[in-house]
Amino acid sequence: PTPSAIRPNSNAARDIAAALHPYTDLVAHQQIGPVVITRGEGVRVWDDAGKSYIEAMAGLWCASLGFSNQRLVEAAVAQMRRLPFYHSFSAKSHEPLIELAEMLLARAPVPMSKVFFANSGSEANDSVVKMVWYFNNALGRPQKKKLIGRVKGYHGITTASASLTGIPTNHRSFDVPLAGFIHTLCPHHYRFGEAGESEEAFATRCAEELEKLILAEGPETVAAMWAEPIMGAGGVIVPPATYFEKIQPVLRKYDVLLVADEVICGFWRTGNYWGSQTYGIQPDILTCAKALSASYLPISAVLVNDRVFQGLAQESHRIGTFGHGFTYSGHPVPAAVAVETLKLYDELGIGEHVRRVGPYMQDGLRRRFADHELVGEVRGTGLIGAIELAEDKATHKPFDPARKIGPRLAKLSEANGVISRAMVDVLAFSPPLIITEAEIDEMLDNFGRALDQLA
Ligand code: PLP
């Protein structure tokens, strides 16, 4: 809408007057206003003017079962009637928390020992930062505290998780990263591979750079490394062949814990239950959120292996308590919704479905867009994919970010009834896992129309 199109007392006018939006140019917003979404059904949402959209991002990579699953609604209502709140401090517990912890351990990609609950991906990763420090204090090595993230990695926006994040937008003007948070090479072969360098050779170089960084810092000072199986917000960056195979021995050599951030990749997104399974990752600690509850209510989880748990347990016993936790850690209502979500993944055969429609989406993205004059790379696996725009297909030269080509394409896509997400000049697709082949065709047809309009 143009400023004149914003009617007094409309939702848009009221939003402009009252709301401070995440990830928004707050000055431009005063002129442009929001798109106000009022309802959802299946993979679609509607705005307050009645226009419908395919939610090609499942919101924020998260509404895995779409926008109208009544089983999840009923699970929330039933739990609210029975016990709308209880906490888990000081050895109190409740049934939804216990059941969810058991279900996560039973589904973990590697043997895990215990589950801690928080309310968001950021809080889960922030909690792990403190757990890692606590763990190394328990082991009597208080100097082993530095934490490694990756350039373009995204782990959230609390002070510690934003410090792990490697995206300039999340650092600029916020005075993060904090000291002791360091970043290693982004494993994006298309952007950072050298001319003629194979994916395998690039992966070797990534592992060598990681080892150099650990040695330069001093291995006795480096505690843990975070990695998303596929980097989401950094631009759907798929690791090059052999990447995790090569970096994990480096971490083991210097006793650096590996934290798999499965906030996007967890729960079938990449075609396996966990991204860790897709890429051969054996994490010591795993964080998840988003699709854990299909995003109907906020909840996140941290899974720790027995070695980490034993360290935390001994330290808590020595000093009297594990002094960490949120009022809403394992809140019974989101926990009950998460239990129902995990049951639905099993009952609906979401895994088999993603293994069928994921390759269909990947093939559609490549077949329709890989040769397009504005497209540099098409990438992804399962039901997560992206196209990266490039000014020069041969040299991979990107567009000048000031031209805002990506955000313009996202707007055109919206006008064509598809909500994608632009991360600079990368347009992402991470639809609800229930999407059908017909809906994928409709999504890609309409997005393709937007891409042609941009050309
Ligand atoms: N980790 C990853 C991989 C994410 O994609 C996100 C959010 O997109 C987060 C952590 C942070 O989660 P939240 O926004 O729930 O704090």
UniProtKB/TrEMBL annotation:
Q: Which cofactor does it need?
A: pyridoxal 5'-phosphate
User: What keyword terms does UniProt attach to this protein?
Assistant: Aminotransferase, Pyridoxal phosphate, Transferase
Any matching Pfam family: Aminotran_3
A Gene Ontology biological process term: gamma-aminobutyric acid metabolic process
- Transmembrane stretches, by residue range? none
InterPro entries per UniProt: Aminotrans_3, Aminotrans_3_PPA_site, PyrdxlP-dep_Trfase, PyrdxlP-dep_Trfase_major, PyrdxlP-dep_Trfase_small
Record's PANTHER family? Answer: ADENOSYLMETHIONINE-8-AMINO-7-OXONONANOATE AMINOTRANSFERASE
What family classification does the UniProt entry report for this protein? Belongs to the class-III pyridoxal-phosphate-dependent aminotransferase family.
Name of the molecule in the record: Aspartate aminotransferase family protein
What is the protein's species of origin? Rhodovastum atsumiense
